[in-house]
Structure formats: structure tokens, C-alpha cells
Design goal:
Rossmann fold; six-stranded mixed sheet; 56% helix; alpha/beta
Length: 580
């Protein structure tokens, strides 16, 4: 659950920290005070996209920090997929997770998980396991058939997951094979041109007789040839400094280092003859003498080879130019060029035997089509069975939400319509069309939810669905942003009771303008705004005692505090206390 939330320099918020508890948390306050900003900030913390103008005017950046406790194994797994080994899955319930997001006025984002920088996609991956935010926009999305299908599949849970995974895998292969078949079914002239091009590319790469280290060797050789004369002069000068030249390479010549080492060798040898204690010194001098002799020989040989060969320079230059042209067409490295060559060979073989491949692909497509149809049928059967159970559960919940006369049905239609070629148009999740039907009044026919449900009814239906899902999903925090919009006082009381029930299993955070919901909360936070030094800021206050009674009275009476509204507020709180 979300234990604390800190927001700095986001919209109207300068710097606030809000503490949340388990059970039901409620945010109230005047319109425009900043309640929605808090919900948007939580969304940003969970990886949602945000605009750079969310940063408070005049500030370089804003930030959101959330501390979560009582983690589920799913959350631990999501964190470990981003930061391996961060959380012990078996001890997730006692772990602490800190998410942070900093947003600059220039649009740059910095995201952190337990102090480690991550991509915003990682926050989304983790956030999906932590919090489910539901607002008015989600209620409107409820009329979308794809959303209804996903809600039904979520209700099915593990009963459908394995079959759905198999369907997705088969569909991916089906689509890939269809693309391959289309490539083979092009015009003969186009296929012939492609074969000619691939053949030429393979011949060109093979004819180049490339080797892995050739370019490095040629580049070094080119540099040497460009400076051969200068190198030769430097090496001959080194020979002269050593007391030798290209014609006389022995270290014993007159003058220079060779003569010096020869003298050292002779003197230490005589000293060793006179006393054994100088034997080691004599051996070292002799070793140095002969090492120098070998060095002089190598230096002379190198000087003799340091010659500029214009013919070789021309060949090296041409070969490097040729390699550059190959790289521009086939890849920057030897490995990339050879990978291009192998892919071209595979495609050439594929196209050359196109008729045989086309027959193989067609046969495989036929098998896959039958398999997909079979899996789609299994999905439809499971959805139909689950749809009946979901409808009964939702109607049961709606009866508790002042919609006792409402009839609700989940309609699952197995829709199969072959294309012109005879193949089925398989959907991303099967061949079902799922539609929620509703009849709010007795005697009226069931009609699509999108055609007759009001905003208030949509909110209550969504709450009913969330309540049903509450027993099966693993998200630890549910956020409801003004789910009570457009409902009466009696319905608000029912929604409060329903949210309270949901909060027995999940942490609930709700933004509301109804006193009934506020009175039912275990933790009541009042959001207000104030002006200081000409700037508007948002504040958050944990309400209790008299302050909470006054806020609930304000919600009841639209702002005015009367003895009647205060008494009613105390009665609501007393009623809530007695139900604990």
C-alpha cells in the first residue's frame, strides 16, 4: 500500500507530504484546491505520461516521491525484473519500496526505484502491480467493447490465461507466415529482380575474400607507407647514435653505445677473474652487451625494410576504398557484412524454391488456422461461462448501490467471418465480441451500455466491477477519483458502504465531494489552497475531531456551518464508528 506521498513544485503544490493508512482514505476540499493534482502526481509516480507544464510556474523542476509497504509477490517480481535481486519475493510483505520521479521544466524526466535510476517504462511495469487508478475517464471507457473484453478476461483470471497465451503465440506465427506468403506471391518479374539483386550481392561479398582483421592491417600499412621515408631516416639516426650504421651492425665498432658496452663487459669480466663476488655483475654486463647486439641487428633490419613502395601504396589505397564501398552497402564491420551475406543467401534460397516454400507455408497456415479456430472456441466457451457468473455478481453489487431493478448481462458473441480467400480474420484475443448490456428499468429490453447508461450509472457499474475484481486481483491500492459524481445522497451512502467493504481487502484512496464517503473513511485528508506573497499554493491537512466534523458539515450543507449540518455530521461519524 501507499504509506506516504511527497510532492514538490507540481502545478499549485509547492511542498506537501501526505500520510496514508490501510483501509479507506478520503480526500476532500473545494473545487480547484488540488485534489486532482495529487491523483495526477500519483499517476506520474507510476510511470504515466506527463506534460512539462505540470512543473510549478517559476520552478526549474518538480518531483514526486512515494513510499510503499506491504508489497505483493507480483510487485517484488516486477521490481526484480528491473533491479535483479532487489527484493526477496518470499518476504515482500515486510519490504519497503520507494519510487521517485523528477520532472524538469524542459521536459527531462529522472525516475528512481529505491535510489536506482530507471526508465519510465520500468515505473509503469512496477506501478501496474501497485495501484489501480479509476476516474471519470475510465467510466467513459467502460462503454468500449475492447475494454469490456479485457474486464471479462480479468474476471476469468487463470482459467483463461493459458489458452490465451497459446492463442497469442499461434496468432503471431500465423501473421508471420502470411507475410512470407505475400512475399512469395508477388509478380514473377519482381521476384526475378530480387533474385538477381541477391545473387549479385552474394557474389560481390564472396568475391571480396574478406578476412576479419584485414581492414585494421591495411589501415596500419597505409600509415606506414605514407611515412616510410621519415621512418627510415629516424631508424638510421638511431643506428648512428648507437655507434653503428646499416652496413656495420656489430656493437664492437668504435664509438657510441656499442663501444661503451664493450668496455663495461671487458672491465667487469676482469674484475670477476680477480674476485668471485663480481661474477654476477660480470654476467649481467655480458647479457646486456649481447641484448644490445641483438637490438642493433633488429634496428638495422627494420631500417632496411623502411622503404616506400609506390605500387604497394596504390594497391593498399584501392583495397581500402573497395572495403569502404562494401561497408556503405552491407555493414560497418566484417561481422555485419557476413551477417548480411548469410541473410541474403537464406532469402535467395527461399525465393529460388518459392513454389515449394509457398506450398509448405500454405499447409502450415491451414494447420494454424484450424488451431486458432479451436483455441478461439475454447476462449469463447470460458468467456461465456464466466460472463454469466460476472453478470450475476455485478447485479448483486448493483442492488447494494441503489440499482436493484437493473438487469445486467454480459453478451459473448463468437464472430467468425472468413476473408475473401477463405481464411478467418482472427482478432488479437480471439473471435469473440463482448458487450455489456443493461436495462435500468423493469420491462425495458436489454441494450448496450454505451447507449443508455448515464454518468452516475457508469460510475456505479464500474465500482461494482471493481468490487467483484477486488476478490481476485493482487493490486494492493485502489484509487477512485470522484466516482460519486452525478449520484444522489442515498446512492452515495451505498457507494460509501461498498468502498468500505473493498477497503477490508485493499487500501482505498478516494477523492469525493460527498459527506457520506468522507464520514466512512479511516483517514480523512483535507486539501485546500492559500495565497502567500502573491502565489497560490496547495496544503494538505489530516482531519480529526472538530475539524473533521466541520468539513463533513461543509460537504453536507454546501459550505455553511449550521447546527443542523454539524449535528448531521456527528451522526454520520457516529454511525461509521458503530459499524467498525
Amino acid at each position: 500500500m501507499l504509506r506516504s506521498l511527497s510532492i514538490k513544485n507540481i502545478a499549485l503544490i509547492e511542498d506537501i507530504t501526505i500520510g496514508f493508512t490501510g483501509g479507506m482514505n478520503c480526500l476532500t476540499g473545494e473545487t480547484g484546491a488540488g485534489k486532482s493534482i495529487i491523483i495526477d502526481s500519483i499517476g506520474a509516480l507510476l510511470g504515466s505520461r506527463v506534460k512539462k507544464d505540470i512543473v510549478r510556474t517559476g520552478c526549474r523542476s518538480g518531483s514526486v516521491r512515494g513510499e510503499f509497504v506491504g508489497l505483493t509477490p507480483e510487485t517484488a517480481g516486477a521490481v526484480n525484473s528491473v533491479l535483479p535481486g532487489s527484493i526477496d519475493t518470499d518476504a515482500a510483505d515486510s519490504a519497503v519500496l520507494v519510487l521517485e520521479r523528477e520532472i524538469s521544466a524542459g521536459g527531462r524526466h529522472v525516475c528512481r526505484v529505491n535510489g536506482n535510476s530507471v526508465a519510465s517504462a520500468a515505473l509503469r511495469r512496477i506501478g501496474e502491480t501497485l495501484v489501480d487508478i479509476h476516474g471519470q475517464s475510465e467510466s467513459r471507457l467502460l462503454v468500449d467493447e475492447q475494454v469490456q473484453l479485457r474486464l471479462l478476461d480479468a474476471f476469468c483470471g487463470d482459467a483463461i490465461k493459458d489458452t490465451l497465451d497459446k492463442y497469442h503465440a499461434a496468432l503471431a506465427e500465423y501473421k508471420e507466415l502470411n507475410r512470407s506468403l505475400k512475399a512469395l506471391s508477388g509478380s514473377p518479374a519482381e521476384r526475378a529482380r530480387t533474385i538477381d539483386l541477391l545473387s549479385y550481392q552474394i557474389r560481390e561479398i564472396d568475391g571480396a575474400q574478406l578476412s576479419p582483421d584485414e581492414e585494421e592491417y591495411l589501415s596500419e600499412r597505409s600509415r606506414f607507407l605514407a611515412h616510410a621515408e621519415k621512418i627510415r631516416g629516424l631508424l638510421e639516426s638511431a643506428l648512428a647514435e648507437a655507434g653503428s650504421d646499416a652496413a656495420e651492425t656489430g656493437p664492437g665498432s668504435e664509438g657510441g653505445v656499442g663501444a661503451l658496452l664493450g668496455g663495461i663487459r671487458s672491465n667487469t669480466a676482469r674484475a670477476a677473474e680477480l674476485s668471485d663476488q663480481f661474477k654476477t655483475l660480470s654476467e649481467a654486463a655480458e647479457s646486456l652487451y649481447f641484448e644490445f647486439e641483438d637490438f642493433i641487428a633488429q634496428l638495422a633490419e627494420a631500417a632496411g625494410k623502411a622503404e616506400y613502395d609506390p605500387q604497394e601504396a596504390e594497391l593498399v589505397s584501392r583495397r581500402l576504398d573497395y572495403l569502404f564501398r562494401l561497408k556503405s552497402k552491407y555493414g560497418e564491420t566484417y561481422a555485419e557484412i557476413m551477417k548480411f551475406r548469410d541473410r541474403a543467401a537464406e532469402r535467395l534460397a527461399f525465393l529460388t524454391d518459392s513454389e515449394e516454400h509457398a506450398a509448405e507455408i500454405s499447409a502450415r497456415l491451414g494447420d494454424l488456422s484450424n488451431r486458432l479456430f479451436e483455441l478461439a472456441g475454447e476462449l469463447s466457451a470460458r468467456r461465456t461461462e464466466a460472463g454469466s457468473a460476472l453478470s450475476e455478481r455485478i447485479m448483486s453489487e448493483l442492488r447494494d448501490l441503489e440499482m436493484a431493478s437493473t438487469e445486467f448481462r454480459t453478451d459473448v458473441d463468437f464472430f467468425y467471418e472468413p476473408e475473401a480467400g477463405g481464411d478467418a480474420e482472427f482478432g488479437p484475443d480471439g473471435l469473440d465480441r463482448v458487450e455489456f448490456l443493461i436495462s435500468p428499468n423493469p420491462g425495458q429490453p436489454l441494450k448496450p451500455l454505451s447507449r443508455i447508461a448515464s454518468g452516475g450509472e457508469l460510475s456505479r457499474i464500474m465500482l461494482a466491477i471493481k468490487t467483484v475484481q477486488n476478490r481476485s486481483d493482487n493490486v494492493s491500492t485502489l484509487i477512485f477519483d470522484e466516482i460519486d459524481t452525478g449520484i444522489s445522497g442515498l446512492a452515495a451512502r451505498r457507494i460509501a458502504s461498498k468502498l468500505k467493504t473493498v477497503s477490508d481487502l485493499r487500501q482505498v484512496i478516494c477523492v469525493t465531494h460527498h459527506a457520506q464517503l468522507a464520514a466512512a473513511a479511516d483517514n480523512h485528508i483535507y486539501i485546500s489552497k492559500f495565497v502567500k506573497d502573491g502565489n497560490t499554493s496547495t496544503s494538505a491537512e489530516l482531519l480529526s475531531g472538530v475539524r473533521r466534523v466541520e468539513e463533513i458539515a461543509r460537504l453536507l450543507d454546501g459550505g455553511a456551518l449550521t447546527e443542523i449540518s454539524l449535528r448531521h455530521a456527528r451522526e454520520l461519524l457516529q454511525e461509521k464508528s458503530e459499524k467498525k
